[in-house]
Amino acid sequence: MRASEQLTATEEKAGGIMLRRQELEKIKDMLIKMAALVEKAIHDSVNSLVERDDELAKKVIEGDLTINTYDVGIEEDCIRALARTQPMAIDLRFITTAMKITTDLERIGDNAVNICERALELNREPALKPYIDIPRMKNIAGGMVRDAINAFVNQDRKLATDVIMRDDEVDDLNESVHKELTFIISQDPSTASRAIKITYISKYLERIADHATNIAEMVVYMVEGKVIRHIDPEALKD
Amino acid sequence: MVKSRDEIYTTVGSPLLSDQIVKISCRNVNVYYGDKLAINKVSVDIAEKEVTAFIGPSGCGKSTFLRCLNRMNDTIRSCRMEGEIIIDSEDIFDRHVDPVLLRARVGMVFQKPNPFPKSIYENVAYGPRIHGLAKNRAELDEIVITSLQKAGLFEEVKDLLDHHGTGLSGGQQQRLCIARAISVQPEIILMDEPCSALDPIATAKIEELIEELRQNYTIIIVTHSMQQAARVSQRTAFFHLGNLIEVDDTNKVFVNPEHELTQDYITGRYG
């Protein structure tokens, strides 16, 4: 290669790397913003139920449009970055992981909407019982989402593993809510309609924790290049 | 997890699969230009009938190492080599080995297409003639045609065999050079940035050709294009400052390399 050709190639490469750095930073930035919206949606959805706040529920439902816009935008950014910067190694794993994370975040947003829809229905009827386990599930699941995204941003495998471990707590709470409500229905069948709706909400929160777990598993893949989905979480402990 | 820069060691890389045959075995290869060490204790096995890509920043030694494999460095006066390179079971630096015959077994294709200023026919016929591979004109014709066919060029030049090779397009000239290399029945083909002077369509044709050729030949390609290495090779070796840093399955190297240096290079953080 002649010196002049080499110079051009170097310049082109430098331009390409700068483009890729910019694209990756933008994707990271958008994901952080999207995750913040999703986390707020989780909290607001359960608060709209606990505080019987219809306005808040409607706001969460409307806000889902923004979350969906982020989902599409991030996916487009990832596809463009793949096409234009041909990433390799950690950059490649970062982009493919971001594409999958955004899908999970979008689903979590949908689950928050579902909670709000049930909340709006439940708010029209007398309260069945004080909510104790549901807010607890919300706090754990919301924290899992936040930590999963932090693990992604900081490439923190330990935090990701920690998120995966917490999924069982939410599963256990979901089961206990289910049992409790089944008992209430058996005592007074007129509560069935309300009890089933609360069961749904518990299930939505359990799904949210599952999505956070998916994100954390993808973060482990991104950091280590190892796929750990469908592996016993106990085996992840270092 | 990538290994840190401190953990770099000279390596033969992850072993070849048990069903692979080692075609070239290199052990502790040092190459000096004068006093300067250009290749430092490189040990690596190259599998038969597979494409191995050599990648690394300019000056990392990948071309120098490639040129060891058919003793092209013999032609450079200041160049000196130590270590062992065994092809099949023969040490190519043994004093009984004739470098001219070695280069028929280990053919080479260069960065710039360099056809002889002769007809297309003569470009391909030259090697077989001096190596006495054809008893008569009919046999020579057969070798020329087969070589051009294997290089994917015959259909385009079958009516132009008496035309000058230099009149072809860059991509066609490069395939002519590949036909010329094939004509002396090599077992190994070394390619030193064979596409860097070609446009994307001509590049794609050469890459398709490489994929076909690996059914019958062991191919080693030096390339500056990581995308090309990722597309055409089964194994990739990464060189840095004369050291072989990592050699592994191409899928592994480009998705999850073992070494930080490899990762820094293929993600463009330096190099």
Secondary structure topology:
The complex is a heterodimer of chains A (about 240) and B (about 270).
Chain A: H1 3-50, H2 54-85, H3 89-122, H4 133-154, H5 157-187, H6 192-224
Helix pairs in contact in A: 1-2, 1-3, 1-4, 2-3, 3-6, 4-5, 4-6, 5-6
Chain B: E1 22-33, E2 36-47, E3 51-55, H1 62-68, E4 79-87, E5 90-91, H2 99-105, E6 106-109, H3 120-130, H4 137-150, H5 154-157, H6 170-182, E7 188-192, H7 200-213, E8 218-222, H8 226-232, E9 235-240, E10 243-249, H9 250-255, H10 260-266
Parallel strand pairs in B: 3-8, 3-9, 6-7, 7-8
Antiparallel strand pairs in B: 1-2, 1-4, 4-5, 9-10
Sum this structure up briefly:
Chain A is mainly α and 238 residues long. Helix content of chain A is 84%, strand content 0%.
User: What low-confidence regions of chain A span 5 or more consecutive residues with pLDDT below 50?
Assistant: 1-9
Rounded mean pLDDT of chain B is 91
Strand order of the largest sheet of chain B: 6-7-8-3-9-10
List how many beta strands of chain B DSSP finds.
10
Taken from the alpha-carbon principal axes, the silhouette of chain A is: globular
Order of helices and strands of chain B: EEEHEEHEHHHHEHEHEEHH
Alpha plus pi helix count of chain B:
10
- CATH homologous superfamily identity of chain B: P-loop containing nucleotide triphosphate hydrolases
Name of the CATH class of chain B: Alpha Beta
CATH topology of chain A: Methane Monooxygenase Hydroxylase, Chain G, domain 1
| Sheet having the most strands of chain A | none
How far is the first residue's CA from the last residue's CA of chain A?
Answer: 49 Å
Beta-strand percent range of chain A: under 5%
CATH architecture of chain B: 3-Layer(aba) Sandwich
Structural class per helix/strand content of chain B?
A: alpha/beta
Oligomeric category? heterodimer
Q: At the fourth CATH level, what is the homologous superfamily of chain A?
A: Phosphate transport system protein phou homolog 2, domain 2
